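anyone else get weird line breaks when pasting these?? whatever heres mine. first is seq + tokens for prot A
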Amino acid sequence: MMVNIFYLIIFCLIAASLQAVRCNPPVGQPAIDSNFPAPELPTFPLAFSALIEVNIVNKNYTALFKEFYDLKANQGSIERTKDGKTHRSIYDYNLDEKISVDLNAKTCAVHSISGGRGFNFFGNNNSHIESVSQLFRFAKQYNESYMGVVPVRGIR
């Protein structure tokens, strides 16, 4: 279940970054107006923070995530609040450390990122945090291409 939530979070971050939803065009309509060249794929920032609310109704799951990412500092943090319980994981790739904090129980534990213990949200390369395009597998090297823009619920 945690892997499914990870992919949902990744999808939400990509959709928020792109500010567009890619869908298949209606039957008989081209996805791209051939009169205009396709725009370049967007680039991701080197640092960002995001607040993500995840609601999976059929799984009776709701959680709030706070994510902080800094490629140059080689650090990231993810905080999850679910059912009134908050856990924070702080990743410092310079020190090969993952600090896991239970904010309710007021306990923490430190593990090496390279030790392979648990899921590493920002990638398993123990020497450097992965770039956002690596994490999302989003770039030309992953064969991503512009598919056009179509209205969704009347919003273009």
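and prot B, same format (seq, then tokens)
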Amino acid sequence: MQSALYPLKFMPLFKNVIWGGNKLKGYGFNYAPLPNCGELWALSSVEGRESVIANGFLAENTLNEAIEIYMGDLVGDKVFNRFGTEFPLLFKIIDAAKDLSIQVHPDDELAQKRGMPYGKTEMWYVMEADEGARLISGFRRDTTEEEYRAALAAGHLEDLLHSEEPEAGDVYFIPAGRVHALGKGLMVAEIQQTSDCTYRIYDYNRRDADGNLRQLHTEEAMDAIDFSGLQGHAHTHYHAHMNETTTLADCPYFTTRLIPFDIPIRKNLEEVDSFVVYMCVDGIAAVKSMETIVPVHTGECVLVPAVADSVELFCEGPAKLLEVTIDTTGWDDDPMQEDWVAQFIGGLREEQEHDHDCGCGHHHDHDHCDCGHDHHCDHC
């Protein structure tokens, strides 16, 4: 009888929503008979929507059931001690054919006051962006509650909010309390705390399938909203290089790194006191660990157990993986310090960043320009 742990792959959960699109069909997902799939839940521990294991002898068991059996060996001892059998992160692909509602999520403190275990801090990695697609993240300037209420009542809330036109590869970190919205034409990978709490602020007067205006959470949102103005751009500046690992976000809830690669890569995990999730956001890849190889394509996740000493990554042509862990350093003290946003947003550890100067004389973010290096340059 088999009992040894191995990297876990999961069955996708499909969610039909009023604003959802059909781009996921192009990545090999079949969600018939749903008319669209606005959300693909790739890895979930949310009650009633727990991911089901798709490979190996644990197939057909839920993620929560596997954690109950293997505890810290699967997720890490500190993670298990804090979260028990609930996996602390939720991984989604969001395909917006129409604008999503303008919304906000509570932080842990407010969520717990209202009977929920966790708030919701999240991040987006933009996988596709149609020409002209926009998103909202934060306020343009410091705003008072009175200004906000007046703009909301007049139907001019968007005049107060910061919006940007993202490109594929852009990263947006959305701390709890930040007003935000995805616009039509965007498909993103979303990594967030395990919480399904959203306060809908404005929804363009849309009606549901029964002809009723969709519910808003105007008063519930008031205590959650951070009214401070956004400083600079909303997107995270980073510098990715082929076959190297680059940190995109680092906060108490998750650490996310990008690995664009076209050759095999081996990583040592001995010092990582956490599970590791690899989420494919471009191409076809394979994750090998603990003598098991798990293939993945765009939109799929692999959970590497915390007891794994190493992992090898392979690809069929160029591919991109998001590598997600939880940094449990200092958890025996007070891991959720109030100033963590300022400390971590766009953060990042210098030894893990690769901020190279290509010599073309311009600032770079990612992707390619004609100077021969792996980045994006508005000037090249």
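btw re prot B: The domain at 246-350 is CATH 2.60.120.10 (Jelly Rolls). The first strand starts at residue 8 and ends at 9.
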